[in-house]
Design goal:
The complex is a heterodimer of chains A (117) and B (192). Chain A is mostly beta strands and 117 residues long. Chain A contains 1 helix and 8 strands; from the N terminus they run αββββββββ. Chain A has a single domain, classed as Mitogen Ypm (Jelly Rolls). In chain A, strand 4 and strand 5 form a beta hairpin. The longest helix of chain A is centred in the N-terminal third of the chain and has 5 residues. The relative contact order of chain A is 0.37. With 192 residues, chain B is mostly beta strands. In chain B, a hairpin with a 6-residue loop joins strand 4 and strand 5. The chains are: A mainly beta (117), B mainly beta (192).
Chain lengths: 117, 192
């Protein structure tokens, strides 16, 4: 039993990095990076809370060398969003980038949680 | 008169029998350990329950222990944005063998060691960066893991009335990826 326990590897059930982006000004497109990871994910998820008075576009890109591949794009309509969730299958270990674009005149703020798992 | 002598004798015998009653060979202990966690450094109370079997006139103990710990620690705001608290949970299970160094029925100084299996669930703030003018990206890490390892233990117990004792103890656990945790605690135990 002792040998069995001591010989055990740590058992990882989940290990995910995630990012919470607070956006208060939309004067220029906002870009936020999430570094690559060692293990392969299975999906990409975005969760949005907040209020905007104009539509805002959310995009996620996979950065592979000099190339940006779109992974997920969604347009948030004007209004209040509570736990609006977007999910996409995603299997790459590459670095990824979140881009938030809106009209410079947009008023409001968004809190965006995004992660791959 | 004979009856009175008989009654006194019976009472004396009863007292003598009570005085020589066996101390239980099992014990249950409840306690709290001030427990340190791996980086980012954190210390908090871990509530512990333990069952023990006593051997060789109380000089050797084999114990099984379970514990629970939950911490929520605030972080400094970054550019006025709260990055959220660090939430850390531990469910612990330990099996320990302890040997008593003092040949005294009311005092015990025990040293020992054993195996540990701890479950950890962490949601931790890793850092933040400014994005553009007034925007902030907060990096966090969420992890659930089962870690195994070993521990060393030292404890002092005072049996203040038959079958009841209080103790203080120090422990160090090495839990591989979860690092080294040290624990300083007190508890009360009952033998049965």
């Amino acid at each position: 039993m002792a040998a069995l326990l001591l010989g055990c590897q740590d058992l990882t059930l989940t290990d995910q990095s995630y990012q919470r982006v607070h956006v208060a000004t939309f004067s220029v497109p906002i870009r936020s990076l999430m570094p690559g990871r060692e293990t392969y994910p299975g999906s990409m998820t975005l969760r949005v809370n907040g209020t905007v008075d104009r539509p805002v576009v959310l995009s996620i890109y996979q950065l592979s060398g000099q190339t940006r591949y779109p992974v997920l794009t969604d347009s948030l309509p004007a209004g209040t969003h509570v736990n609006r969730s977007l999910r996409q299958d995603f299997y790459s270990r590459d670095e990824v980038e979140l881009q938030v674009s809106g009209s410079p005149a947009t008023i409001g703020s968004l809190e965006i949680d995004w992660y791959r798992q | 008169m004979n009856r009175f002598i008989l009654l006194c004798t019976a009472l004396l015998l009863a007292g003598s029998l009570r005085a020589q009653s066996q101390i239980g060979r099992n014990s249950v202990r409840l306690g709290v350990d001030l427990t340190s966690l791996d980086a980012p450094d954190a210390v908090g109370p871990r509530y512990v329950g333990r069952l023990a079997r006593h051997f060789r006139q109380d000089r050797l103990l084999i114990t099984a222990e379970a514990g629970y710990m939950r911490l929520a620690m605030a972080n400094q705001p970054f550019n006025g944005i709260d990055p959220g608290v660090n939430r850390r949970t531990r469910l612990t299970a330990d099996v320990t063998v302890l040997a008593d160094l003092l040949p005294n029925p009311n005092h015990a100084l025990r040293l020992g060691g054993g195996l540990s299996t701890w479950y950890r669930q962490d949601d931790i703030y890793m850092g933040a960066t400014r994005v553009g003018l007034d925007n902030v990206a907060i990096d966090r890490r969420s992890r659930r893991e089962v870690n195994t390892g070993w521990h060393l233990a030292a404890e002092y117990e005072w049996v203040f009335v038959p079958n009841w004792g209080i103790d203080a103890r120090f422990r160090v656990a090495n839990l591989s990826a979860a690092g080294i945790s040290s624990m300083l605690g007190v508890g009360i135990s009952h033998r049965f």
